[in-house]
Amino acid sequence: MKKTTIAAGAISAIAAALAIFSKTKKRAVETDTVRTARFRRARRVLIVGATSAIAQEAAKEFAADGDKLFLLARNAEKLQVVANDLNVRGAAQVETAVLDVNDTDRHADVLARVTDAFGGLDVALIAHGTLSDQSACEKDVALTLHEMQTNFLSVVSLLTLLANRFEAQRYGTIAVISSVAGDRGRKSNYVYGAAKAGVTAFLSGLRGRLDAAGVKVITIKPGMVDTPMTAHLEKGALFASAEAVGKGVYRVIITGQEVVYLPWFWWVIMTVIRHIPEPIFKKLSF
Ligand SMILES: NC(=O)c1ccc[n+]([C@@H]2O[C@H](COP(=O)([O-])OP(=O)(O)OC[C@H]3O[C@@H](n4cnc5c(N)ncnc54)[C@H](OP(=O)(O)O)[C@@H]3O)[C@@H](O)[C@H]2O)c1
Hints:
Blueprint: H1 3-24, H2 30-36, E1 44-48, H3 53-64, E2 68-73, H4 76-88, E3 93-98, H5 107-118, E4 123-126, H6 134-138, H7 141-169, E5 173-177, H8 190-211, E6 216-222, E7 225-226, E8 240-241, H9 242-255, E9 259-262, H10 266-275, H11 278-281
Parallel strand pairs: 1-2, 1-4, 2-3, 4-5, 5-6, 6-9, 7-8
């Protein structure tokens, strides 16, 4: 049997075993420990890409805590549906604004509007993204750069502005949904992976910079999640639900962990994947 087949088989076997183990673990503690960590007053939470399936699930948790939410997304209709739902779920206040994140010239004004509405900000969650069509990108420079713009540069722009605000106020949490795809470039997905790698590296540096100001910077790396983004993909044992991952995002923000894989077993999978020697890795087809 070829080395690459053995390596791919071993990764799948470890991954499947971990997925089964994780699903059988009791959920227990989650609700209590997390809720006891609530702020005394309503948190003021900004969510960029608020119509994302994962972000919506995280937002429901903040709404249930009675927090204030400012939602940014590019589709006004979807945004209104999400806002109505969060109001029903107990949010203290829900504000919305339409933003295409690639319209970076508007970022400063929109963020000023957000902080004006709430008189400040405690949490910023950046959740937007597109799963790049790898083979289409290989044939089209403009498309590749557009994907980099959406998944990396727009995040850099938002983070630069948010970092300065949070650093000046000397408190708060900035969380971004990156991806396991950013841990190592795979031939089937390296445009998206490179953008997420950029996000992860940027956050790593930002975390160091903002530590002295008491600001938390959180990198969230989900594995495969069943959302509209992956609707076209065949679902296997490794897929998590948007609800589980969204709740995980909320939990990570509340508990202040810094770099987190969701579900947790992706840490094991990615540790294995990161250590596969390049001559073998380049031959793997996944
Ligand atoms: N699903 C996965 O397997 C997976 C795995 C790892 C990481 N992630 C990351 O998790 C995050 C959330 O994704 P998801 O799985 O919840 O997918 P999703 O439901 O498809 O959400 C993606 C969101 O990004 C928004 N968006 C895309 N381009 C935008 C733009 N130019 N301006 C403003 N908003 C834009 C979309 O808005 P529209 O509705 O207007 O298109 C949508 O709300 C993303 O950062 C993604 O990369 C996902």
